[in-house]
Amino acid sequence: CHCSVYFSPFKTCCFIDCQLYQFHYINKNKTWTEAQQYCREKHTDLATVTNMKDMKRLNNISAGYQSEAWIGLISKPAFTRTWFWSLPGVEFSESETNWNPGEPNDGGNQGSENCVIVNKNLSWIDNSCQTPNHFICYNGEINLFMNYFYMCFTWQEAQSYCRENHTDLISGTKQLQDGAVKNVMDSRSDYSHIGLFRDTWRWSDISSFSFRHWNNDFNYPESNNKVILIKENKTWEDALTYCRDHYHDLVTITNMDDQRWIQEKVKNASTPFVWIGLHYIWSLRFWVWVSDEEVSYENWASPGQMGDCDVSGAMETGGGHKWFKRNDSDLFNFICSKK
From which residue to which does any coiled coil extend (predicted)? Predict the structure, then answer.
């Protein structure tokens, strides 16, 4: 059984809780919130996973069960992004940073740069987690720093490699100040991933553990913090209601930059189209965004799309990510915008 966490706390699923570092698989179907309440009443809380050893214990206790299981990790729109070091036990301190001048700039406030690279001077630069770079692993057992400059990975791929072959991505100012690191970086003109990242995920027991162990297909951390793909199949109206209840609205696309952000998200959808916040008003014969934005930018598969009664706009998840009109009753994944 693979232990997994869903963003939505309303999806029913089996779950895992723990007490005094003993994990118990509870074979009951509950939402995340119901599972949290059950664990707090019967035990301590939903499981907190602090390192790879805990992860292996979870996998062992889940063996033989076919369903996925809740753990105590959740993200909400109200949570602010917080910096963490990848290596468990290394705490991030705002008073011990080495940002390059003008950093972190978050990609010009696009909410897209949630991981960190270093330049040859070991100054920190926030960067997209999806951009392949060289990286620095830390080998804690023999206190050496291993540099693998012949490989370019995304941040998550680099983290997985370091955990499987060494200890973790290099983490903390003490490790980065080691002379061996400076000697290697002095001879290079490119950038390398380090173990600094930020996200909005929090543990149910309010602990500050930075450990994350996402599936490889999880876009981690979020490449765009302003929108989210919901991989549930709903009609257009149900998708609209869901977004307004849990986030802000179905997504509005007003320019090419918006289009690029959204089309990266929809690549991970499980349906051939995803709903967007575009609806056809039959009585007035024109398209409108649910946010009341003017439809100034268009990316239709066929120019001059005319609608019918009860149709809305959907983006294809493959090909050129063009827009198509689809019946409101069709069941697709959808994109929500955040406030």
Answer: none
